[in-house]
Fold this protein.
Amino acid sequence: MQDFGKVAVLMGGFSSEREVSLDSGAAIVAALQSKGIDAHPFDPKETPLHELKARGFQTAFNILHGTYGEDGTVQGALELLGIPYTGSGVMASAVGMDKYRCKLIWQALGLPVPEFAVLREDSDFDAVERGLGLPMFVKPAAEGSSVGVVKVKEAGRLKEVYNSLKHLHGEIIAERFIGGGEYSCPVINGEGYPAIRIIPATEFYDYEAKYTRDDTVYRCPADLSEADETLMRSLSVRAAQAIGAEGVSRVDFLKDTDGKLYLLEINTLPGMTSHSLVPKSAAQTGLSFADLCVEILKTAHVG
Ligand SMILES: Nc1ncnc2c1ncn2[C@@H]1O[C@H](COP(=O)(O)OP(=O)(O)O)[C@@H](O)[C@H]1O
Ligand SMILES: [Mg+2]
């Protein structure tokens, strides 16, 4: 096995997803150690990142979610420190965090995204409502975990919803409702992995369905035809490539009632707890959690 030296698993951090990150990190440390790798937890909230070198770390496995973790800032710091790290670099991380700019890139390449409009103070809210129809989804471009995601069902309410969300991060976007099912597809080192069907018991895949309820159903293999499975994997690879994502990412999809697939968003630092989606999908191909962690570690790089 390649010698990775002393490996810091970057976990915890400053974002609201700190707890999820600590869960993922603990699972990764144990997995790497089980493979004989000298891996240790490293929480930048407790120890400043610039201590990595002084403490003898040679490689970083990044599993910090959210702000200062998957948005390009930690990646930039690691570049300056010259410590090889796993996953996407500065630009792909930053673009992946911004749903609006991500959509612009995908659209420019002809990839399918749900029709959308950016809402501003002076938008013609009635025109947007007529254009996208009801129900529609309204969301901030730079949050996550379904924070600020609203399904608007009644006519004439769009401006009020915009006003309640405009303090959140990023542009506020209104999106056509795509109602035929939700899927997610990992990309690992440029290759599409088995899609997962997500069936929330709530009206949509909201914060509760993601983190607190235990009745969300995940199906892998998903319920797609062979042709759609192949299409979804190839769209995932192209969507990740489009923003320059590296290592592991996870591309989320919606299917409409006619069966057409749409890109919903990309996650450049997906969760890695033992029950997270990426490990579930990898397991379908015979890749164990520990082997998956080693595969990811192999991609650590700077520059
Ligand atoms: N256009 C849409 N049509 C149908 N459902 C949507 C749409 N946009 C968002 N949703 C629902 O809201 C959830 C959260 O939205 P998403 O854009 O993925 O934000 P987040 O980054 O917070 O996960 C999705 O998983 C899906 O269930
Ligand atoms: Mg999402």
User: Anything to note?
Assistant: The CA atoms of residues 231 and 261 lie 9 Å apart. The first strand starts at residue 7 and ends at 10. The pocket of adenosine-5'-diphosphate (ligand 1) is lined by residues 114, 137, 139, 143-147, 149, 175-178, 182, 204-205, 252, 254, 264-265 (CB under 6 Å).
